[in-house]
Write a structure and sequence with these properties.
single chain, alpha+beta, two-stranded antiparallel ribbon, 1 helix
């Protein structure tokens, strides 16, 4: 199967700060990681173009 060239635009919101209350550094890291994962999971994007890469038949023979 051919590989594809894909153009994607991510809609990233302006810089955001989070205030985290935690009892130790490990808990703070866990909470920060959960917040970062939530941002990644809800990140909006638009796919502009999908184009199959062309291959020479000589490569497959």
């Amino acid at each position: 199967m051919p590989d594809y060239d894909v153009q994607v635009k991510f809609h990233i919101f302006p810089y955001r700060k989070f205030k985290i209350s935690a009892k130790d550094e490990e808990e703070a890291r866990k909470i920060a990681n959960e917040q970062a994962q939530l941002l990644i999971d809800t990140l909006d994007f638009t796919i502009y173009r999908i184009k199959a890469k062309k291959y020479l038949m000589d490569r497959f023979l």
